[in-house]
């Protein structure tokens, strides 16, 4: 159940339509899925990548390799955070070399997570091209990183957070705005 103090930005139907739109944009850029692989960033990026893959495969009739990337140890703040980071592990069962890689993440903010993902991915091989798909771009970049595929652009105050909640991970499907300190 969605609490009233969490401003709802998108409901479950809007989330589903946004993911479908992202999949169609990827299909337009990569007709037939030639040489395409999807790699989701743990945690919600993996769930989004799985959903995108299902939609692309259904539309194009081809198999799209899917991987999960854990960037925990590549973060530039790993030594400065108070709590011990939880490493969930990278699971990529294919060679990324010479592939058209789309990194998938839920929220793009400063660009630091995307930078860490690029570093982690480059340790696995040399893709032909790497593109970034995000569900929400909230602006506020600290690094010169821009997404290639965007579900929705939202502007919120710096003290706020945007949270994508997915049924598979969170038990509900929506986008909410939270105070920065709230989980």
Structure description:
The protein is 27% helix and 26% strand. It is of the alpha/beta class and 183 residues long.
Short description:
The protein is 27% helix and 26% strand.
Give descriptors for this structure.
183 residues, alpha/beta, Rossmann fold, five-stranded parallel sheet, three-stranded antiparallel sheet, 4 helices, 27% helix, globular
SSE blueprint and pairings:
Layout: E1 8-10, H1 12-29, E2 36-41, H2 44-60, E3 66-69, E4 100-108, H3 112-122, E5 129-137, E6 149-153, E7 160-165, H4 167-170, E8 174-179
Parallel strand pairs: 2-3, 2-4, 4-5, 5-6
Antiparallel strand pairs: 1-8, 7-8
Helix pairs in contact: 1-2
Distance between the termini: 16 Å
> Can you count the beta strands?
8
Number of helices: 4
Residue-averaged pLDDT, rounded?
A: 90
Beta content comes to 25-35%
- Enumerate the strands of the largest sheet in spatial order, edge to edge or round the barrel: 3-2-4-5-6
Uncertain stretches: none
The major sheet is characterized as: 5 strands, parallel
CATH architecture of the domain at 32-75 and 95-158: 3-Layer(aba) Sandwich
């Amino acid at each position: 159940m969605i609490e009233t103090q969490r401003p709802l930005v998108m409901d479950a139907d809007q989330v589903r339509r946004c993911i479908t739109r992202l999949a169609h944009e990827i299909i337009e850029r990569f007709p037939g899925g030639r040489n395409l692989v999807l790699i989701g960033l743990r945690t919600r990026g993996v769930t989004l990548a799985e959903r995108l893959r299902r939609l692309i495969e259904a539309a194009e009739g081809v198999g799209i390799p899917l991987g999960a990337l854990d960037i925990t140890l590549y973060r530039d703040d790993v030594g400065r955070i108070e709590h011990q980071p939880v490493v969930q592990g990278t699971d990529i069962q294919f060679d990324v070399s010479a592939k058209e890689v789309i990194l998938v993440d839920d929220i793009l903010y400063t660009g630091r997570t995307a930078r860490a993902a690029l570093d982690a991915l480059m340790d696995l091989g040399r893709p032909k091209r790497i593109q970034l798909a995000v569900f929400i771009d909230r602006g506020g970049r600290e690094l010169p990183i821009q997404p290639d595929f965007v579900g929705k652009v939202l502007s919120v105050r710096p003290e706020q957070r945007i949270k994508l909640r997915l049924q598979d991970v969170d038990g509900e499907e929506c986008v909410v705005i939270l105070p920065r300190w709230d989980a």
